[in-house]
């Protein structure tokens, strides 16, 4: 008569280790998809630059006032009538940081309705 061996139940730790290993490989590959910058490259520092707004950009203040080249603008429609046709293809808008988002969307829709083909919002990008 043969003696039956009792089967020991295996713990699923091997499967867990495999999953963690596959996740590690995935994140290593996903993290290296973008080409790294050259090691000897030094980026330009703009912290000390005295910058000004682009001259042909529509500035929208926190209270909703609009100015273009320093002159106040009554409405989006009257502003668009002043622009030449080539300037309407790509209109730059500089909103104040404290401008309500709903007001920015409302003004953007009014500009589109008045003939602006593409509206580019100029923002500040902080790298540090």
From TrEMBL:
It is a single-pass membrane protein; Single-pass type II membrane protein. This is Biopolymer transporter ExbD. The lineage of its organism: Bacteria, Pseudomonadati, Pseudomonadota, Alphaproteobacteria, Rhodobacterales. The keyword Nucleotidyltransferase does not apply. GO terms for molecular function: transmembrane transporter activity. It comes from Mameliella alba. One of its GO terms (biological process) is protein transport. Pfam families: ExbD. The chain crosses the membrane at residues 12-34. Keywords: Cell membrane, Membrane, Protein transport, Transmembrane, Transmembrane helix, Transport. The keyword Nucleotide-binding does not apply. GO terms for cellular component: plasma membrane. InterPro entries: ExbD. It is found in: Cell membrane.
């Amino acid at each position: 008569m043969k003696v039956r061996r009792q089967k020991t139940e295996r713990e699923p730790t091997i499967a867990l280790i495999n999953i963690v290993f596959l996740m590690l490989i995935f994140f290593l590959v996903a993290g290296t998809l973008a080409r790294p910058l050259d090691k000897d490259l030094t980026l330009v520092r703009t912290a000390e630059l005295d910058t000004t707004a682009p001259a042909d950009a529509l500035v929208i203040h926190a209270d909703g006032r609009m100015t273009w080249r320093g002159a106040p603008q009554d409405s989006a429609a009257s502003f668009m009538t002043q622009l030449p046709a080539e300037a309407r293809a790509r209109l730059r808008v500089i909103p104040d940081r404290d401008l309500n988002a709903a007001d920015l969307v409302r003004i953007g829709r009014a500009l589109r309705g008045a003939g602006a083909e593409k509206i580019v919002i100029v923002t500040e990008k902080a790298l540090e």
